[in-house]
């Protein structure tokens, strides 16, 4: 890797602030980062000829769910979103855990090289995805000049996102990463559309006159206003048509059922997120001083459900592609293909299979991420021992601490993955806004920001508290 040092040293980066910034200043920089990304989502790419994706790759990489998770907006400078950064980060974590990279993350210089190499990998992945997108005709037929212009624009856009992430991670912004911020913005945008969009819903090959659900505005608030007006004047569609708006076979529009499901599921997620499992521990240097180490009940949930959604979408497209080549699929496979799709389908076979698929895959991915993501009992035990903690009745030892933590942490990893997958699937079935996965991400990221703001605000009011906690 040392041969890449000249390249890594030339990557554009953000310097850390000379001193710790107050919370208000960091919130201002975070708001600026959000504004920059919002501008990127409405800045069109020069040189493209299509306003909607086409081609074989479009159904996978520009699936609405994938677009929401990765914060992508087709045809704009946010075309790639955070996809290259997220995928590069996961690849680096896997390679580092497998000892395939020669980085010692306990060494400051190696940590900097690891971070720089991850940025370089993100740029490489952005270049590869852009080239594939252009080659498959997703943007339409481009001249060489137009193709080069699109390629350069998306590389610059990815570099901007990397810098935004670097700025927040190094202490200028708030939240530790721009990744969470962009995911939050993307899901919030979906919620805003579902609430306030005045556009009329349109779908290919479907006549709005055949379905009252399509004769009301897309957003719930304007649809409610129109429905109330129509009811007062005895016109259809009215209030009753807003209770359950669905265009066959499974296109759910914002309605009373989906609103109630969104609020109910959000409450359940918030409640579960507040649950903890306490592990008794004691400080080695303060004899007799004991504390409880709170382990989150939802120990790991975000990464597994993102993997689950992406893998199901990919599997769905593979099965559909095979069916197109072979001229059809068996009835059993057709049922499985339908179960892979996030939709509001209230048939027993879909409900059972969709929940089982999500729960099983999320559990598997949670276990895998627990092994390679640096959140397993060995890593947790190491951090606790370094903090001067040990298990009462045992001597201070990473091995002993890891053995004590192994059972509860592994159990929480499996449970949190299964519960996250089940809740995401239930959200899809009831048509929650932003999808079940989107709602889980929204609540988790929102709670994380809220908790951090409270903690840092408290420490600014009581500076001595920060010194006590750091000890």
Automatic annotation (TrEMBL):
Keywords: Membrane, Transmembrane, Transmembrane helix
Keyword Hydrolase: no
Listed GO biological process terms: protein transport
Record InterPro entries: SecY/SEC61-alpha, SecY_dom_sf
Matching Pfam families: SecY
One annotated Gene Ontology cellular component of this protein: membrane
Keyword set includes Transmembrane: yes
Transmembrane segments: 27-49, 69-95, 116-139, 145-164, 171-192, 252-273, 293-313, 318-339, 351-370, 432-450
Domain of life: Archaea
Entry's family note: Belongs to the SecY/SEC61-alpha family.
Protein name in UniProt: SecY protein
Source organism of the structure: Thermoproteus uzoniensis (strain 768-20)
């Amino acid at each position: 890797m040392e041969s890449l040092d000249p390249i890594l040293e030339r990557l554009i980066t953000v310097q850390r602030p000379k001193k710790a910034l107050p919370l208000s200043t960091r919130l201002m920089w975070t708001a600026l980062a959000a504004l920059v990304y919002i501008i990127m989502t409405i800045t069109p790419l020069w040189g493209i000829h299509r306003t909607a994706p086409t081609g074989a790759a479009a159904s996978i990489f520009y699936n609405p769910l994938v677009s929401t998770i990765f914060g992508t907006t087709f045809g704009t400078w946010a075309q790639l979103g955070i996809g290259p950064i997220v995928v590069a980060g996961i690849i680096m974590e896997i390679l580092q855990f497998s000892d395939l990279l020669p980085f010692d993350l306990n060494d400051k210089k190696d940590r900097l090289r690891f971070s720089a190499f991850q940025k370089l990998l993100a740029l490489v992945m952005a270049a590869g995805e852009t080239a594939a997108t252009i080659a498959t005709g997703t943007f339409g037929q481009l001249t060489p000049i137009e193709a080069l212009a699109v390629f350069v624009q998306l590389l610059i856009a990815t570099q901007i996102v990397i810098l935004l992430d670097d700025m927040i991670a190094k202490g200028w912004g708030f939240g530790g990463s721009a990744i969470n911020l962009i995911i939050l913005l993307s899901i919030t945008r979906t919620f805003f559309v579902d609430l306030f969009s005045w556009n009329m819903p349109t779908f290919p090959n479907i006549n709005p006159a055949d379905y009252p659900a399509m004769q009301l505005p897309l957003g719930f608030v304007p649809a409610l206003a129109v429905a109330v007006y129509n009811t007062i004047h005895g016109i259809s569609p009215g209030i009753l048509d807003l209770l359950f708006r669905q265009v066959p076979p499974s296109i759910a529009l914002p309605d009373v059922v989906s609103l109630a499901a969104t609020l109910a599921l959000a409450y359940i997620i918030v409640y579960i997120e507040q649950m903890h499992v306490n592990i008794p521990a004691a400080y080695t240097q303060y004899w007799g001083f004991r504390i409880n180490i709170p382990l989150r009940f939802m120990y790991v949930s975000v990464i597994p459900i993102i993997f689950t959604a992406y893998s199901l979408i990919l599997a769905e497209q593979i099965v559909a592609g095979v069916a197109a080549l072979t001229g059809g699929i068996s009835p059993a496979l057709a049922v499985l293909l339908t179960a892979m799709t996030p939709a509001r389908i209230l048939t027993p076979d879909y409900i059972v299979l969709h929940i089982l698929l999500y729960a099983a895959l999320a559990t598997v991915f949670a276990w895998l991420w627990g092994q390679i993501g640096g959140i397993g009992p060995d890593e947790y035990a190491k951090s606790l021992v370094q903090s001067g903690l040990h298990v009462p009745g045992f001597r201070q030892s990473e091995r002993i601490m890891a053995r004590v933590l192994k059972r509860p942490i592994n159990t929480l990893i499996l449970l949190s993955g299964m519960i996250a997958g089940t809740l995401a699937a239930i959200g899809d079935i009831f048509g929650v806004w932003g999808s079940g996965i989107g709602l889980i991400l929204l609540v988790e990221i929102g709670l994380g920001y809220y908790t951090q703001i409270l903690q840092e605000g408290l420490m600014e009011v009581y500076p001595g508290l920060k010194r006590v906690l750091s000890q």
